[in-house]
Amino acid sequence: MTTGVADGLWYEVHEGPAGADSVLMSAGLGGSAAFWSPQMEALNGRFRVILYDHRGTGRSDRSLKPDHAVASMAQDIVAVLNATNTARAHIVGHAAGGNAGLQLALDHPDRLDRLVVVNGWSRPDPHVARCFSARTRLLEAFGPTAYVEAQALFLFPPDWISENDALLKTQEAHHIAGFPRIDVMLARIGALLAFDIDDRLAEIPHPVLVAASADDMLVPPLLSRRLAERLPDATLDVVPWGGHAFTATASGAFNARLVAFLSGDD
């Protein structure tokens, strides 16, 4: 593994076999490269994998550039691709990262091969807005600890939370310790709520795997269905259980589908 920093963005590269396709993984709102840990065993040895921490989070620059938007997140992907000498890559994105991948397909279509959008959307949605309103009110009124402790309710199925309480408490302590500045988190949420490319989906010709969970509390699967219906070359895959973070809670099923799609076996 090699690491580096490009324009304030921390990244790591896991080299694959000679001639392997490059896969850049872009996390959701938390922004951490570590989000993709459940996928690494399935991808290593098959692909050249690029991970990075979103701007404002983790080991990257903890501030945002002016007028932060999803288009800014897409431009950050370009910065990482350039820094890693990657002319073209498959992009795998979860929520914020998936939306950034869609924006990248519009702004820099030549840098993208296949796209995986996990729990993404193409236009503002009332349910998503209500969820984020509740989360931002918690953050503004009570701070990062309350925000992080409530986060599990939006990310995981109830039975998974009941069975993994000790793990969650360990993870929550880590997330609280590394929480972004409140203004940065609010700006990132604002960018997601303003994201709207619905009338441009027909301009995206790339093969897209649209992945979702039927029990996602934060991003209703109907938003993924809309994406799949309106993108010219999309495949919809909805798992029955796993919540918003089903890449972790149902990683086996997701990883199998992911590898097949990235390998062109879909």
Q: Find the CATH topology.
A: Rossmann fold
SSE class: alpha/beta
Content of β-strand: 15-25%
Backbone CA Rg: 17 Å
Structural summary, described in words:
The chain is an alpha/beta fold and 266 residues long. It has one domain: 3-Layer(aba) Sandwich (Rossmann fold). 45% of the residues lie in helices and 17% in strands. The protein has 11 helices and 8 strands. The longest helix is centred in the middle third of the chain and has 17 residues, at 126-142. The protein is globular, with a radius of gyration of 17 Å.
Question: Key terms for this structure?
Answer:
266 residues, alpha/beta, Rossmann fold, eight-stranded mixed sheet, 11 helices, 17% strand
In short:
This protein is α/β, with parallel strands linked by helices and 266 residues long. The chain contains eleven helices and eight strands. An eight-stranded mixed sheet has the order 1-2-4-3-5-6-7-8, with helices on both faces.
Chart the SSEs and their pairings.
Layout: E1 2-6, E2 9-14, E3 22-26, H1 37-43, E4 48-52, H2 70-83, E5 89-94, H3 96-107, E6 112-118, H4 126-142, H5 144-155, H6 158-163, H7 165-177, H8 182-194, E7 208-213, H9 221-230, E8 234-239, H10 246-249, H11 251-262
Parallel strand pairs: 3-4, 3-5, 5-6, 6-7, 7-8
Antiparallel strand pairs: 1-2, 2-4
